[in-house]
Amino acid sequence: MSNAAAALALIWMLVFPVAGEPVAYESVAAPASAAASDEATLELNAEQAGLMAGDPDWRASARLYHAGGGGATGNDSLGCRPIPMRTVAVDPRVIPRRTRLFIRETVGLRLADGTVHDGYWYASDTGGAIKGAKVDLFTGTGRGSMRPAMSLNMRTLSITEAGRFDGCPPAWNSASN
Question: Which helix (H) or strand (E) holds 63?
Fold first, then answer.
């Protein structure tokens, strides 16, 4: 109860200061809304800036999938372990497997561990429900792993080819290199 009273007193002091003019709404509300954002600032390197500036190679509707609960249960279609927030399932007739992808809408996405997504993904999986211009973004294990990327679900994403890869997709610590 005393915490609520202290919070009310603080708000009262901000809105009705002892001397001077009232505080503008924007000066009080803007910091709170900025802190609630899931996107963070990421300094782009030259490659990322070029990929952001160019036209996308594909526009695809995104879905999210996770391990467990009927989602991914083993290896991807290349025989590799899916990498959370890196592996993408695609229709290989639209986006070839082994394509390194840059998805603009994921740049700056704050992940559950506090890191910031750099926009790079790897087309290493396929799926029966993925037909045409659709992609499935692998988020990790359990339904909670989908939370950081939930704003991307059912959205049309701008996807650019950023090269090719051999073997399995790289782990997080080396994926953007």
Answer: strand 58-67
Domains for the chain: give ranges and CATH numbers: 2-35 (no CATH), 46-174 (2.40.40)
Per the document, the length of the chain is 177
The residue behind tokens 């087309």 is 123
* Contact (Cβ atoms closer than 8 angstroms) between residue 120 and residue 166: no
Helix, strand counts (H, E) of the chain: 3, 6
CB 151 within 8 A of CB 95: no
176 — pLDDT class (breaks 50, 70, 90): low
Q: Which residue has the tokens 């992940």?
A: 111
Is the torsion defined by CA of 44, 162, 81, 93 positive or negative?
positive
Three state DSSP letters for 71-139: CECCCCCCCCCCCCCCEEEECCCCCCCCEEEEEHHHCCEECCCCCECCCEEEEEECCCCCCCCEEEEEE
Q: What is the pLDDT of residues 120-171, one digit of tens each?
A: 999 999 988 899 999 999 999 888 899 999 999 999 999 999 999 999 998 7
User: Which among 69, 57, 58 is positioned nearest to 134, based on CA atoms?
Assistant: 58
Which amino acid is residue 150, in one-letter code? M
